[in-house]
Each structure stands twice: as C-alpha cells, then as structure tokens.
Amino acid sequence: MSKSEILSELPKLTPAERQEVRSRLAELDRDEWLDDGALTDVEKALIEERFRDLEINPHTSIPWEEAKVRLMAPFKR
Hints:
This protein is an all-alpha fold. It is built from four helices and no strands.
C-alpha cells in the first residue's frame, strides 16, 4: 500500500482506530522526538511514564475531539 493510499484511508477509520495508529506511530518515533534536545530528562521520564500508564489503562483516556469539547465548553455562551 502506498503512502497516498494510507493517507486516503485514515479519514475512514473510527476514533479508536485512529488512536491505535497514533500510538503505533508514537512507538515507532518515540526515540527520535524524545532525543531531539528540546526536553529535559525529567520531562522525558514523565512522558514515558504517561505512555506506560496509557498502555496499561487505555480506558482512562478520551479522544482529542471529546477533550476539546470539554475544554471549550466553559467558553461557549
């Protein structure tokens, strides 16, 4: 499957499937973006801890769209 085919299929995925794709991409790229010098060792450890927690307790997270709605709710009048 080509990159363009993969990209064209992404909008057809459910939110849960897109989260799975994001998690897998983060897994593949984890070392690269964590080691670019922008984060301290403490920040890297915190991110790793949160990734582990998410893997162990996936039910404790919510999709970004839901989080965005919750965050924006107090500002809607």
